[in-house]
Amino acid sequence: MYCADVEKVITMKENKLWFIVYMGLCLFTLCVSSDQCGAPQESESTCGCASTSRKSSGNAFQSDELGDGIEDISKEAPNFKYSQDANAVKDSLQTHQMVEIPGGKFIMGTNNPVFHADGEHPARWVEIRAFFMDIYEVTNAEFERFVKANSYKTEAEKFGDSFVLDGELSEAVKATVENAVAAAPWWVPVKGADWKHPEGPNSDIADRMDHPVVHVSWNDAAKFCKWMGKRLPTEAEWERACRAGKQERLFSWGNKFTPNNVYRANIWQGSFPEQDTGEDGWAGRCPVTAFPPNGYGLHNILGNVWEWTADWWEVSHSPSLQTNPQGPRSGDDKVKKGGSYMCTKEYCYR
Ligand SMILES: [Ca+2]
Ligand SMILES: [Ca+2]
């Protein structure tokens, strides 16, 4: 990576002008209160993440409606994302560096799905062009730049509340909670929970600026990407980047989750949702730079926080070869990938 400038990229890589960012979130990002949630999508034993998803309505999830005065900064400075300046690591809070993910054919999905409701079957060949992808989840520090530049209010801030895992709340905040999600009572709507106050109004992110931003909706994520002169990856691009050239493996490093008994991703150990023992080094979220990168140089593409993709959610897929697939034309929810610090091997795969 660290391309010198966009002109050189055009000359050298005519088919590789795809700019991607992947965006951290937790699924409690999306919903205001339980009566605005649809029925849970999950039919098998899960963390209940989908129970907190806000269903699209009206103008939600329309990528062509990203107005709100958000300007694509790449238009002002077209060389920005490839410039040496943009890709040099000046301090620990600058984490929007990108890496090129090679194009080619790969096998997406699996013929041995763990959770049928995830719709990861069948295994099918996909061919995609090369693109660039952020090497880290989007941090609070990077998101703050966007918020300040645009006086941006996230959807959670507009709605006035967001979902938080009850084990992360103080007793004072718990006392204010009025209703939880019936299907997943450990998810509770907390007034004043948003990206700056992840565990409610009395919390802050001052010592977590290098952690992934959370309580970010798909619309928030898409607008952030637009401002950066990037976009969300398609699900196929995300999976290509995650697999890092390995075919038909469960994880981006192989089939064993803890090779040599070493954790390679931030997930949940212990009994969910009662106790996260932090055996992998982190109880809760970790800095985006934690854990070794996958073969393409991407950190925490598995675990830590879920990541938004551009695609609508779909559980049936054609087995025939797809070229640069972009998912269905419409849907009720967007695809999130990679799992989070709240996942266990028993809960999450897609
Ligand atoms: Ca952990
Ligand atoms: Ca992640």
Plain-language structure description:
It is built from 8 helices and 11 strands. The protein is α+β, with helices and mostly antiparallel strands. The protein is globular and about 55 Å long. One calcium ion binds at residues 266-268, 278, 280, 282-283, 341. InterPro entries: CTDL_fold (IPR016187), Sulfatase_Mod_Factor_Kinase (IPR051043), SUMF_dom (IPR005532), SUMF_sf (IPR042095).
In a few lines, what is going on in this structure?
With 350 residues, this protein is α+β, with helices and mostly antiparallel strands. It is 16% helix and 13% strand.
Any key phrases for this structure?
binds calcium ion, three-stranded antiparallel β-sheet, single chain, 350 residues, three-stranded mixed β-sheet, alpha+beta
Strand order of the largest sheet: 1-6-3
Distance between the termini: 28 Å
Sheet having the most strands = 3 strands, mixed
Strand content: 5-15%
**Element order, helices and strands?**
HEEHHEEEEHHEHEHHEEE
Counting H and I runs of at least 4 residues, what is the number of helices? 8
Oligomeric status: single chain
Shape: globular
Total DSSP E strands = 11
Classify the helix fraction into a percent range. 10-25%
User: Which segments are poorly predicted (pLDDT under 50) over 5 or more consecutive residues?
Assistant: 1-18, 26-44, 56-65, 75-80
**Estimated structural class:** alpha+beta
Rg value: 19 Å
